[in-house]
Amino acid sequence: MSSSLPRVVIVGAGFAGLRAARQLAGAPVQVILVDQNNYHLFQPLLYQVATAGVSATDIAYPVRAIFRRQANFSFRMATVTGVDFAARQVLTDRGPIPYDQLILGVGGETNTFGLQGVARHAFPLKSLDDAIRLRNHVLRMFELSSQSEDPAARAALRTFVVVGGGPTGVECAGALSELIRLVLVKDFPGLDLSDVQVHLVERMDSLLPGFPPQLSAAAAETLRRKNVTVDFGWQVQDYDGEALCLQDGRQLPARTLVWAAGVQAVSLLKQIGLPTSRQGRVPVLPTLQVPGYENVWVVGDAAYLEEAGQPLPMMAPVAIQQGELAAKNILCQLAGQPLQEFQYKDPGSLATIGRNAAVARINRLKFSGFAAWLVWLAVHLFWLIGFRNRLLVMINWAWDYLFYERAVRLITAQGTIESQPKSSTPDA
Amino acid sequence: MSSSLPRVVIVGAGFAGLRAARQLAGAPVQVILVDQNNYHLFQPLLYQVATAGVSATDIAYPVRAIFRRQANFSFRMATVTGVDFAARQVLTDRGPIPYDQLILGVGGETNTFGLQGVARHAFPLKSLDDAIRLRNHVLRMFELSSQSEDPAARAALRTFVVVGGGPTGVECAGALSELIRLVLVKDFPGLDLSDVQVHLVERMDSLLPGFPPQLSAAAAETLRRKNVTVDFGWQVQDYDGEALCLQDGRQLPARTLVWAAGVQAVSLLKQIGLPTSRQGRVPVLPTLQVPGYENVWVVGDAAYLEEAGQPLPMMAPVAIQQGELAAKNILCQLAGQPLQEFQYKDPGSLATIGRNAAVARINRLKFSGFAAWLVWLAVHLFWLIGFRNRLLVMINWAWDYLFYERAVRLITAQGTIESQPKSSTPDA
Hints:
Two copies of one chain form a homodimer. By secondary structure, chain A is an alpha/beta fold.
């Protein structure tokens, strides 16, 4: 590969970055993908790792394996610390990486809206480690509650609160309730299910914003049928690890709080020095360029772009389509051709609420129940990168479905080990 | 279950503890199994987790699921801190557990023979977390070496040393070499394999002590064919994370040292106050009782017992047979019948050295190569508890075998996260 070819540096191996890199296959450019992890994470299934449905390794795939056959591609595992726009260099913990074109697909992170107790004690659900930590914690709560003699302490151990009525919150609450009622009940013979509470807390008065009202209502109804208590209009004040405090003064003792109430673009964008807008996202032109930088493109959750007066949602389909367009526009620019503007093609919305239940909107079609669940299954398996992962996830799901089992209910040491051999720190 | 039945407390969910608990199914006793983890770990395949062959969750199985159908069984997840023999109580971080009969199957840990640098910088291979940490580290070494400009630093990053010529060391060195030469070489297009070194270091002049000489020789020969440098007669002086120092003054720069050179019984046994012998193991009577305590039994790696003047090896078959006998002897004692003495039925020995290669001794039969490898495969799949895990491991192996892939080459955050929500610490 000639080093005189233009260097396109892509930061972030999420949906947007991956799609952009793939789009540039065969083009007369060098592609350098940078990420702090060596894998792509299929975020839509994170909640399944957290609820012991699939193994962490089933939903992550090594970046190098994905691009093995792409000759103009190389990967750098490094943590980006900044960008020197004047010198056209991405700054990382392993030295600078020069670029001619830069695509930032750095993604989102949990937004706790300044609630310090939530930031400290609640469980986010954005990274593989978040999910494993939540899984370990939930299982540990049952081990502890089986040994606790104090009724109040036991109640708090057996109360699980999910905050946020979006797809992540809905899916997580449904899967958590099923994990407890279908699987753990067999592991803990003394467990009285009437002692166990799963709450889904939502600030507004309906679930799944952006879905048609009848699907939102169907989701709430299905969750209730699965023994999830859906609490509308609850405004979280704070959380201290022992009890959830609401703004009206009420308290709900709970040792587990999953925070799925907000996302924002990663704070790296501010650190880089780019202007940010709502949710910390960087406003971009319809061509996906940052105003004032013709060779810097921001895509996915990190980008702020409106369509029909509404910001585009922070979702995988937007990221994938933007990653594709940014790559195409770079090639247009290099070829001296006019750039295209982004137009979101909405593929619809899907959310699952456990066994046999989901809600789906595809174009004008709206449906819920078993049919929607089958669509959800098919779509997610299709998008999971790599046939092998697809196969393993399918086996796990089939097993779960047929035998009411959760394969991965292990409490591992991840997130609890505080020391490790010095030589394994990335300081070479 | 009547609480007036004798309480048999088993500490440790390893091979010995599991077998003992199973043996007591249906007997007129209460069985309480205590372990700090909620899963049984199939230790013989740990090295496969470390070399990205199988997922951590494939070789671990939740204890509660194993014993779900055993009515007289209950599980306590707790860390044992001591035993009050006078009061007949096991002391744990979650309070005391009274016993009438006590089986200690607490297992072994890595023995670094007082080498402080080794204890600090080398990678042991005894727990699930050890294996994940080693996997992350090995993959990280390749990411770092692909970005390193300094030839000396790069050489150290690409030198992998396994110390110890027993089955764990042999299997680990073989699997590591194959991971690099068959899989990673495809991920790192610029990698020159002549730069990569895998050493197996052994103090004595042959591998696999306890195997017939021709099998030891076959193992060394096979490893060499798989590009492992076998260093006999190397005496380790210490390791500082950068270079291995030998007693004769030689140095080998290497950023990775796997320590598979020694095991000892866990230090908990000393903490409990039991007298210990060689390798920290507790001498037991042939009935497996601790002298002076008719209701305390020690089994597996934790027990010291000689047969024909030789200490029994710290291996799964010994542990399984001792767990069975301890349980039987407890029932004999409760029924007023005479106790049996332990007699080891040696099922043979097996060690694999990667694709299509293993050495096997079964009774008087000794063989190596492909046939031994097939036997190794069958035996290990048979012993993996739980059909589902068996199936998943088989798929991973088939994939690996057919496509020269390693599924699980992810660098995850395990072992590197130093903080977590306070509420997830087991302090309820």
